[in-house]
Amino acid sequence: MAEQAQPVPEVRHYRRVGLEDCHYNGNMMSGGKIIEMVTDASGELSIRTDGEGGLLVAIENASIKESVFAGESLEIIVRLV
């Protein structure tokens, strides 16, 4: 009997971007702020996975393909690999 694959643990954060998150012309959010949100979500994933907090060690191949502006919604998904 074949083993069933375990689902990959993941956390999804949904965030509405406010003016306080944006400081570039046109109320655009910085890429650094987006990466900060990714690190927050990865910390939550660490707590849910092993019961303790952890630190994000590395991000590989991160790319931000579109600008994010105040008033938009942002979905951040982190997976344990």
Give an overview in words.
The protein has 81 residues and is of the alpha+beta class. Helices cover 25% and strands 23% of the residues. It has one helix at 31-50, and strands at 10-16, 22-24, 28-29, 73-79. It has a two-stranded antiparallel sheet with strand order 1-4. Strands 2-3 form a two-stranded antiparallel ribbon.
Cα radius of gyration in angstroms: 15 Å
The biggest sheet, with number of strands, parallel, antiparallel or mixed sense and barrel status, is: 2 strands, antiparallel
Order of strands across the main sheet = 1-4
Q: How many E strands?
A: 4
What is the strand content?
15-25%
Structural class: alpha+beta
State the order of secondary-structure elements, H for helix, E for strand: EEEHE
Distinct helical segment count: 1
Poorly predicted sequence stretches spanning 5 or more consecutive residues = none
> Roughly what percent helix?
10-25%
Amino-to-carboxy terminus distance: 25 Å
Give average pLDDT, whole number.
Answer: 86
Estimate the global geometry from the Cα principal axes: elongated
Ordered list of secondary-structure elements with their pairings:
Blueprint (H helix, E strand, L loop, with lengths): L9 E7 L5 E3 L3 E2 L1 H20 L22 E7 L2
Antiparallel strand pairs: 1-4, 2-3
